Amino acid sequence: MRLVVQRVTQASVKVKKQVVGQIGKGLFILVGIKKGDSLKDAETLAAKLSKLRVMADKEGKMNLSIVEVGAEVLVVSQFTLYADTSGGNRPSFINAALPDEARKIYEHFVAELRRLGVKLQTGSFGDYMEIEAKLDGPVTILY
């Protein structure tokens, strides 16, 4: 699995001009799932993410987790995180998990975050989405 984690002051996702997920201050997360990823991988990354200390404390230092500050998370599936451009200019997505398997792992990741006390919204798996995010910092972490 790959995660692109961005600290935001706000983020939203629209499908067909309708907002399907929206948060204020928190983390915007793109999730890519490759062939061979497992439910255990989703659990491991959810646990790491829930403890990631990138939220500002009273002194403005990145010292607190999203759970500690009550921040929100917007999670969006993104198969293009597994694009392979080594063979030319047109990306291949052969390493990305097939949709049914990816959905299962993605939904498990989301459920695990909720179980860990993370307040979250999601995009719409497999749909074309319009995303708006106002980066805070900017702070971007890759898992």
TrEMBL record:
Reactions performed catalytically: a D-aminoacyl-tRNA + H2O = a tRNA + a D-alpha-amino acid + H(+); glycyl-tRNA(Ala) + H2O = tRNA(Ala) + glycine + H(+)
Keyword annotations from UniProtKB, A to Z: Cytoplasm, Hydrolase, RNA-binding, tRNA-binding
Keyword DNA damage belongs to the record: no
Location of this chain's protein in the cell: Cytoplasm
Domain notes: A Gly-cisPro motif from one monomer fits into the active site of the other monomer to allow specific chiral rejection of L-amino acids.
Family: Belongs to the DTD family.
Protein name: D-aminoacyl-tRNA deacylase
Organism in which the protein naturally occurs: Candidatus Woesebacteria bacterium RBG_16_42_24
Organism classification: Bacteria, Candidatus Woeseibacteriota
Gene from which this protein is expressed: dtd
